[in-house]
Amino acid sequence: MESYLKHLVSNQPADYVEIRVEETRRTRIEFRGPTLDSLGESVDCGGCVRALVDGGWGFVSFNRLEGLEEHVALAVRQARLAGERVSGKSRLADAPVIQDKVSAELEEDPRQVPLAVKKDILETYNRQVLDFGPPIVSSRVVYFDKFTRLHFANSDGTYIEQEKLDLGGAVVAIAHRDGDTQMFSRGFGSSNTFGVVRGFEEAVEDACRRAAALIEAPVVEAGEYTVIVDPILAGVFVHEAFGHLSEADNVYENPNLQKVMTLGREFGGPHLNIYDTGLTPGVRGYLKYDDEGVPTQRTYLIKEGKLVGRLHSRETAGKMGEKVTGNARALDYRFPPICRMRTTGIEPGEATFEDMLKGIKLGVYVRSAYGGETAGEMFTFTAGDARMIRDGELAEVVKNVTLTGNVFQTLKNIDMIGSDERIRDGAGGCGKGRQGPLATSMGSPHIRIRNVVIGGKAR
Questions:
Q1: Exposed end of the chain (fewer CB within 10 Å): N or C?
Q2: How far is 199 from 204, CA to CA, in rounded Å?
Q3: What is the dihedral of CA 198, 201, 202, 206, to 10 degrees?
Q4: Collapsed DSSP state (helix, strand, coil) of residue 285
Q5: Would you say the C-alpha torsion 442, 208, 202, 398 has a positive or negative sign?
Q6: 201-239 pLDDT, tens digit each
Q7: Of 169, 193, 300, which is closest to residue 238 (Cα–Cα)?
Q8: Is residue 442 within 8 Å of 280, Cβ to Cβ?
Q9: Domains of the chain, with CATH numbers?
Q10: What is the pTM of this model?
Q11: How many CB atoms within 10 Å of residue 57?
Q12: 343-353 pLDDT tens trace
């Protein structure tokens, strides 16, 4: 395979050519209430060719290796035609030439766990939810694993073979009473072990208790509060509200965003550091090389409150005159790589949770994440559950807590950052450009934010 792919990408009439070939084995299990909704394994094989000529890209995907020479030729022809239309110049940032073979270092290989055993483990968790009793009325339990062998070659001379595992799942407890439905989810994920699936009973119990508590809880009163945000919701916030703004293709294609996301601009206090990395082992956002064969790294987006970096492909780095960061990722061989996050988070500070509680006469402690959306600088997130803070102490559980605001003002309003960083993994993933869900992770310690608008019932 190595010599064949190297031969195909060499001496082509193009500025750049790359080939990815993948073989992926997948497992999926899903329960909805008492019903086993999905149970199966599958194998998928395919690949793609990307070519660049005079600033124009050609892209061809395929499911069979036969005729690969024709696929390469077609991608080059597409690129030439596209280059004639854009009348541009090919600009790819320099990247190291790599020769490497990366074997997955697995603590417990999910391929060695029989499908029946996986199903039995998930069924046990599902039964635990259903047997919890009122007000828990239903459940959803989902599990997947995906093991990929990938071959990558480009015309610069890079050749990489990689093995990659992506595994995730979640247990959802659903409560209902008198027309009110509430739910709570606990998730797991890994890039190196099936072990995260085992011993999840305590987390399942926690999901049931918290869903049941939400049924009994009052709706939060709308208003502006100082909030303490737990690591899960803080990670979702930094990913959705700021991480996507840092993806360089979004910046390069949007002149207004270029003015906002100017390197050196101050976005927060000197205690605020935001990063993206592919180097954290074991989490779903881990990868040694991106889908352009570029080594991943830890990239600071905000350092001591100032914007210092963004997430690049070779093309965006070349066009913007910046260094590659290893953030070109594709969902699979059916798609070209685009700028994507890996593990995005807020670096830990020095505050304790007790430090954050002090001085809050009336506030809200928001935990976990139920959903949310962003629109440019504005965001709306719904917490999984929350507790009021009264006179520096945690008080009653409240529900239907929605946080709304401007991301840049919110970053400036972060006045305390905890020392208890946690990385979140689960069954979901990141969506962008019709490529999703892509494996990513999110991390943060607890953070405290002043002047957050929370929606709820009118006072």
A1: C
A2: 10
A3: 120
A4: coil
A5: positive
A6: 999 999 999 999 999 999 999 999 999 999 999 999 999
A7: 300
A8: no
A9: 2-216 (3.30.2290.10), 223-455 (no CATH)
A10: 0.95
A11: 18
A12: 999 999 999 99
